[in-house]
Design a protein that fits this description.
By secondary structure, the chain is α+β, with helices and mostly antiparallel strands. The chain has helices at about 1-30, 40-45, and strands at about 50-60, 70-80, 85-95, 95-110, 115-120, 125-130, 135-145, 150-160, 165-175, 180-190. The chain has 2 helices and 10 strands. A hairpin with a 7-residue loop joins strand 9 (about 165-175) and strand 10.
């Protein structure tokens, strides 16, 4: 009886090995699809207009966010994540002290839109879209300030033909876009690659 149990077990084990071997052989013969390497497209490359080191200066207007004041600063933008995103870090001096921020610019293939995510050292953040045109860029954001107030922001950046200088004008809306007020204006100059 013990010999029959041992023989049955060995036959069962042998059959399992044969099944596994034939399954593995079938898998080995099934062609594996090649992995497609996705590369950034022309819409990603449009963000490169910001790439490099820039200096800028301008002024804010009196708004619910604060008083009228002058500022100047520097920003550095570079492609990250194999060219699928542009990271911008900026720092500026104003009468209240040092302001800093980080921005991530991306292209969303599903919505076919350029997206921007900004975070500042006063707790503010802006999330929205960028629209690239022949002479510049339009921006449309939802801004939450460090006190939790929600506003809309829109802006334009107009570049010189050589893309080494720009002028930017911003507006704010505290009533979901029913009315707009001037927020800030500034000019920027490219300092390096």
């Amino acid at each position: 009886m013990k010999n029959i149990d041992l023989t049955a077990r060995l036959l069962g084990f042998g059959a399992s090995i044969c099944l596994l071997a034939s399954h593995h052989s079938a898998l080995a013969e099934t062609p594996v699809p090649a992995v497609q390497v996705v590369k950034p497209g022309p819409e990603h490359k449009k963000m490169g207009i910001f790439a490099g080191t820039w200096t800028y200066e301008g002024e804010t207007f009196a708004t619910p966010l604060g008083p009228k004041e002058k500022f100047k600063g520097k920003l550095v933008s570079r492609f990250i994540l194999d060219g699928f995103a542009l990271e911008t870090k900026w720092e500026e001096k104003n009468p209240l002290g040092l302001a800093q921020g980080i921005e991530i610019h991306t292209y969303d293939l599903a919505s076919k839109s350029h997206r921007t995510y900004m975070f500042m050292n006063d707790g503010s953040q802006m999330i929205g879209t960028d629209t690239f045109g022949d002479k510049g860029i339009g921006f449309s954001y939802r801004l939450t300030d460090g006190k939790g107030r929600l506003m809309l922001a829109r802006a334009t950046a107009t570049f010189t033909v050589d893309h080494k200088q720009f002028t930017s004008k911003w507006e704010l809306s505290a009533d979901e876009g029913s009315s707009w007020m001037p927020f800030m204006e500034y000019t920027g100059k490219k300092a390096g690659k």
